Amino acid sequence: MTKRAHNFCAGPAALPTAVLERAQAEMLDWQGKGLSVMEMSHRSEEFVAIAEKAEQDLRELLNVPSHYKVLFMQGGASQQFAQIPLNLLPEGATADYVETGIWSKKALEEARRFGNVNVAASGKALDFFDIPAQSEWQLTKGAAYLHYCSNETIGGVQFDWVPEVEAPLVVDMSSDILSRPIDVSRYGMIYAGAQKNIGPSGLVVAIVREDLIGHARSICPTMLNYKTAADNGSMYNTPATYSWYLAGLVFEWLKEQGGVAAMEQRNRAKKELLYKAIDSSDFYTNPIRPAARSWMNVPFRLADERLDKAFLAGAEARGLLNLKGHRSVGGMRASIYNALGLDAVEALVAYMAEFEKEHA
Ligand SMILES: *Cc1c(COP(=O)(O)O)cnc(C)c1O
Predict the structure, then answer these.
(1) How big, in percent rounded to 5, are the helix, strand and coil portions of the chain?
(2) Of 88, 310, 327, 354, which has fewest CB within 10 angstroms of its CB?
(3) pTM for the full model?
């Protein structure tokens, strides 16, 4: 059996071993057709079936209502930062944005190129260690939408509540989609770059309420218009076929695991174990207010940053990979997406205790 490390990378992130094994088994000869999914026409009966099954499984997993389109697009989550205002922000209108960290800031800065952006709230005064309470938000009357990021992958801050505003909610769920149940009907649009909890990078999945589609600016490029994707089953041009297929395998795997409710249980156990290890020691710290702590991305620091290198080297020697924090934050970060089991977190926590004993 191939030896697999525990990969704590923030993204592109670990994929379930079972999914990769299945892809490997099907690589040269997909279901007796004598060719790889990579080599199939996107118009072929076979690929269309793969694509439709992936969409259907995602709809089941998230209980997506029928008046929402599921779009499989390219350009990652970052391209959505432009696509969202091009499609949803009419000339002269204002969009509200909530700033809770680096990703939501990028989104609002990009939107400023296209129209009026009101920063309804910012966690900056809280050092982005917490999410500003909704009672403090300065909302725009008649805003085209409110954009926020449900999980700030870099800072490790996550909403454990859904904003209640009049404008449609547009949410960047790149790093926490499918990690626990959500009520899709509360959102106007959900989007997620695939490489955290869905599949390979480059692909972005969007779930868009139908009434929001079809109002793009006249300057919106055809390829960036949600209507183009919606009207063409996300196949106006050649989609990222292999990534779509792999995403479908991940969705199948999720269903086998018991769906997002089972993921929630598993993810809760994982994050509780890790935060407990951090909080019960003076050697490790995480600065985020407990209610806003991310279940998916856990940044932590060592008491003495001169030990960072040794910590990372020791971790790597034990097959605990990619624990280095984002360059803007420093320290460590453990990303514990769906594909990582409790065993990965147990191995990390055991190593942390051992390292502390040696160096404290
Ligand atoms: C990774 C990430 C992005 C950027 O995704 P790309 O696919 O690289 O564009 C955006 N938002 C969040 C929350 C992310 O975690």
Answers:
(1) 40, 15, 40
(2) 327
(3) 0.98
